[in-house]
Design a protein that fits this description.
Blueprint lengths: L1 H14 L8 E12 L9 E17 L4 E6 L4 E6 L13 H13 L7 E7 L9 H14 L6 H16 L6 H8 L5 E5 L4 E5 L5 E7 L6 H19 L18 H25 L3 H17 L6 H10 L5 E6 L7 E7 L3 H16 L4 E5 L6 E3 L3
Parallel strand pairs: 3-5
Antiparallel strand pairs: 1-2, 1-12, 2-5, 2-6, 3-4, 6-7, 8-10, 8-11, 9-10
Helix pairs in contact: 2-3, 2-4, 3-4, 3-5, 4-5, 6-7, 7-8, 9-10
Bound molecules: alpha-D-galactopyranose.
The site of alpha-D-galactopyranose has 10 residues, from helix 5.
Length: 380
């Protein structure tokens, strides 16, 4: 990690040659969600894992009274004078994640100073691996400098940036796991109480992601629709959130509302069952819960797409695979697969070749190792 940080400092110096101030480097990981999707904004349970793909930010104070940003991946520059930050408008692009966080920090009365930021990310954008949450948390840590904010507060602030500035009504899961990820495994988050704990997976089990390369564009509009349907259903049932719903209440619902609530209820149950199976060292049962999750997201929550259905079904035909499902918001992005470690080379080759023959697209297949949450990295 030190060498990656050192490389980033060198790139920062080349990009902002007149800035001779001390450079800090922040790393903020992406995430893959093992199980528990579309439950977070319903006060439910989720089980995401921070992964070894990450957003890196090198930063130093400048004397321009502005935030000056360069993104290596998009080869873009952006500058925002601090004087106009509070009435700035979103640009509907990557800079919104950075500026949105700056606005929320200012709202939280954190005094900002001029800073240069060099951003470089290995998390593919729009692939459902939380590249945006990683930029948000990385930016918050970059702008906070030595000032400390509690982990839960930090995650909430970044979620607000996305909700208010970017205008995406996301839940708390992504920002929370980017902050609290653990090297040893996934984390189980109760999105009602925001209590969380580590969850270790059996040692011989590997988590693999398959990127369908379908950009989840529909996700932004449909996400809001699903969220609205859940809120309406909770109101109709007289509940603060669907976390309080019980199976007997389903008789009071019909149509889409019935399906959405049935998903939320059953998905919370599957997170619990998956964790129990992990503790019991029973990968077959863990896999069954993943398969149940995919079916429910496809049929009851209706957020899958043909490519994800194909990837999830094809994975199950490969030896050593325990289970597979779409992961994250849906309508594209990645599947998450649970398999025997030994089976990975064969899995990678077979799933890629099946997808290529069916859709003419090369998917990215990657093994995920659990990574720590965001923080500063020393460059020496
Ligand atoms: C997106 C959102 C999360 C969560 C997932 C679905 O990733 O950002 O808050 O709702 O979708 O589980």
């Amino acid at each position: 990690m030190a060498s990656q940080a050192g490389e980033l400092v060198a790139k920062f110096r080349a990009q902002f040659p007149e800035n001779r101030n001390a450079v800090r480097v922040i790393r903020a990981p992406g995430r893959i969600n093992l199980i528990g999707d579309h439950t977070d904004y319903n006060g439910g349970l989720v089980l995401p894992m921070a992964i070894d793909l990450a957003c890196w930010i090198a930063t130093a104070a400048n004397d321009r009274n502005s935030l000056r940003i360069h993104t290596e991946d998009l080869h873009r520059d952006f500058e925002m004078p601090l004087a106009i930050l509070s009435h700035s408008e979103p640009k509907n692009g990557w800079s919104d994640y950075v500026i949105g966080v700056a606005v929320e920090l200012a709202n939280a009365r954190v005094p900002l100073r001029g800073q240069d930021l060099f951003i470089s990310s290995t998390i593919p954008m729009g692939s459902g691996l939380s590249s945006s949450a990683a930029i948000e948390v990385g930016t918050a840590l970059a702008l906070l400098g030595d000032r400390k904010l509690g982990g839960v507060e930090l995650a909430k602030l970044c979620q607000r940036a996305e909700n208010n500035y970017r205008g995406t009504p996301c839940g708390i899961m992504d920002q929370f796991v980017v902050v609290h990820g653990r090297k040893g495994g996934a984390i189980q988050i109760d999105c009602r109480s925001l209590e969380f704990e580590s969850a270790t997976l059996p040692a011989n089990v590997l988590v693999a992601g398959v990127n369908s390369m379908v950009k989840h564009e529909l996700a932004s509009s449909e996400y809001g629709v699903r969220r609205g349907q859940c809120e309406d259903a909770a109101r109709r049932l007289g509940l603060a959130s669907l976390r309080e719903a019980t199976p007997d209440m389903l008789v009071n619902l019909e149509g889409d509302q019935l399906k959405r609530v049935r998903h939320v209820l059953s998905e919370n149950g599957r997170v619990r069952a998956f964790l129990q199976a992990a503790i019991a060292n029973d990968p077959q049962e863990m896999g069954r819960q993943l398969v149940g999750s995919h079916t429910s997201l496809r049929d009851d929550y209706e957020v899958s797409c043909l490519e994800l259905d194909f990837l999830a079904a094809t994975a199950l035909e490969i030896a050593g695979v325990y289970g597979a499902r779409m992961s994250g918001g849906g309508f594209g992005g990645c599947t998450v697969n649970l398999l025997d470690r030994q089976a990975f080379p064969e899995f990678r080759q077979r799933i890629a070749s099946a997808y290529r023959s069916r859709y003419g697209v090369e998917p990215i297949v990657f093994a995920c190792e659990a990574a720590a949450g965001a923080g500063p990295v020393s460059a020496t």
